[in-house]
Design goal:
Number of domains: 4
Radius of gyration: 30 Å
Distance between the termini: 84 Å
Largest sheet: 6 strands, antiparallel
Number of strands: 14
Mean pLDDT: 87
CATH class of the largest domain: Mainly Alpha
Number of helices: 20
Strand content: 15-25%
Strand order of the largest sheet: 1-2-3-4-6-5
Shape: elongated
């Protein structure tokens, strides 16, 4: 940095020469400003006003030139126009291509990291990796490199804001809006996973929402670099001074016993984002205390969605619960699986499932009229199948995607359903244990229950405790058999029923 000229020594001529010397403007651009003034005998203020009006310079550039800054305007083939934001390890600027004028975002590594070879290598490695990710829901990297030992990457400039800032203004999003945004997120994640890349910093500020409402992921893999130095300090002080998700990933993966970089960790935090969009509240306790961020309790004590909004669609709640399942084998195994279920829920909501089903159901037998059945199932397709089948027969259907939460619904005085169907499709032993507990509990042992045994879980029949009002039903599903069993259970629960 040069010493700035004293304010009285700056003239229009000296300023014009300086912006030319440092490469911010070329001769043609400088001459166009003089031509508009019609004279070289103009004041500095007059010249800079013309340059601002013509879009040749920005206030940010003018202030830096007057402050004596000679460098930091040009990175490769791109010119910085003004500062957009600053993070832990980099600053982000709006810029443009010096020849085409194409608008871009330029991320520049902070000065304090310029001598850190590890951070430089990480920055360039991640930039090179993300440059290969070309997908509508991922902010593309066009170029990267170093200019006077300042490392940078050039990305698409997204006209919009990040989800964190938008949520502050909106409070929360409706279900269809939330589904669309997280569908975009999981679509981008799924593409990246196909290329062998995980994000590792899934949080609201790393999703940019375009002016058309579409979500785009940014900052793949950069969290580790941003957090490494802060983590060293955090271990000493116990206080985290970075907003990076790295510490959250560490806490989650430690308690779920998976290796660092497991793609299912990104899925968990995508579920957190969906929860946050629907409720306006983060599912995880927000804290800067390292011990609290790493605590297993933080992940276990998540308030059920229905306590924030009892009217949320059960199928959407099931998606959130499955994405955030602490049993990684029950969690979505790929972002594509979560995306598929989100599409199904979206179609269900858009087509007004209840009205359509009720209208069609009137043509069928309605033996379940006035009766209520709870289905404990996390698989969206199975939920759809059973819901459609039972509603056509007049049953009021309650879907719960978590076995423990289903049992908790019977803790109160009011009984939420007259019969409960536990499904092992994805819940496996969790459904078996819940079925057995339901039959042993004094408050629920007389309530009819059915355990659906999927084809790969037939051996659970030996562990399941049947009895009065308690039926084991092997898959594949036989509609007539299920209808007959429900009728018998609900009409006379005092008699034993054999499947």
């Amino acid at each position: 940095m040069s010493e700035p000229l004293p304010e009285k020594q700056w003239t229009a001529e000296k300023f014009a020469q300086r912006v030319f010397d440092i490469g911010v403007l070329d001769n043609i651009q400088v001459d166009s400003a003089w031509s508009e003034l019609g004279t070289r005998d103009a004041s500095l203020e007059q010249l800079t006003s013309v340059m601002l009006r013509k879009g040749l310079l920005t206030n940010w550039q003018i202030d830096r030139v007057l402050a004596g800054e000679r460098y930091g305007y040009i990175y490769g083939k791109y010119q910085i126009r003004y500062l957009v934001g600053a993070g832990t390890f980099a600053r982000v600027y709006r810029g443009s291509h010096v020849e085409t004028g194409k608008v871009v975002a330029i991320k520049v590594l902070r000065n304090r990291h310029s001598d850190d070879m590890e951070k430089q290598d990480h920055f360039l490695r991640e930039a090179n990796m993300v440059k290969e990710l070309r997908h509508p829901n991922i902010v593309p990297v066009y170029d990267f490199g170093a200019e006077r030992e300042r490392y940078y990457m050039v990305m698409e400039f997204v006209e919009g804001d990040d989800l964190r800032e938008i949520l502050k203004k909106r409070g929360k999003f409706n279900p269809l809006e939330s589904i669309q945004i997280i569908s975009d997120v999981t679509s981008g994640l799924d593409f990246a996973v196909g290329k062998g890349v995980t994000h590792r910093d899934m949080k609201m500020s790393n999703v940019l929402l375009t002016s058309t409402g579409r979500g785009k992921l940014v900052d793949f893999g950069l969290a580790a670099m941003a957090a490494s130095e802060k983590e060293k300090n955090a271990k000493k002080t116990g206080v985290i001074t970075t907003s990076s998700r790295s510490i959250d990933y560490a806490g989650l993966e430690r308690m779920t016993r998976v290796h660092k970089g497991d793609k299912r960790s990104d899925i968990y935090f995508a579920g957190c984002m969906l929860y946050h969009l629907l409720t306006g509240v983060s599912p995880l306790l927000e804290s800067r205390e390292r011990s609290e961020r790493l605590s297993a309790t933080r992940f276990r004590e998540v308030t059920p969605l229905t306590q924030h909004d009892a009217d949320l669609p059960p199928s959407l709640i099931a998606v959130v619960n499955k994405a955030m399942d602490l049993n990684v084998e029950r969690r979505y195994q790929t972002p594509g699986e979560m995306l598929s279920d989100l599409h199904k829920v979206k179609q269900r909501l858009e087509h007004g499932e209840t009205a359509a089903e009720e209208g069609e159901g009137k043509k069928l037998d309605r033996e379940g009229e006035g009766r209520s059945v709870m289905i404990v199932e996390s698989n969206i397709e199975m939920q759809d199948t059973l819901r459609d089948l039972l509603k056509r027969r007049g049953y009021r259907v309650l879907i719960v995607g978590d076995a423990e939460r289903a049992l908790g619904r019977f803790d109160g005085i009011e009984q939420p359903a007259e019969c409960v169907i536990f499904c092992t499709t994805e819940m496996a032993e969790e459904a078996l244990d819940a079925f057995n507990s339901f039959g042993e509990n004094e408050d629920t042992k007389d309530i009819p229950a059915i355990l659906f045994l999927s084809e790969r879980h037939q051996e659970y029949a030996r562990k399941a405790r049947g009895g009065e009002h308690r039926v084991l039903l092997p898959m594949p599903l036989k509609v007539r058999q299920l209808r007959a069993i429900l009728l018998k259970l609900l009409s006379n629960s005092g008699k034993s029923v054999d499947a």
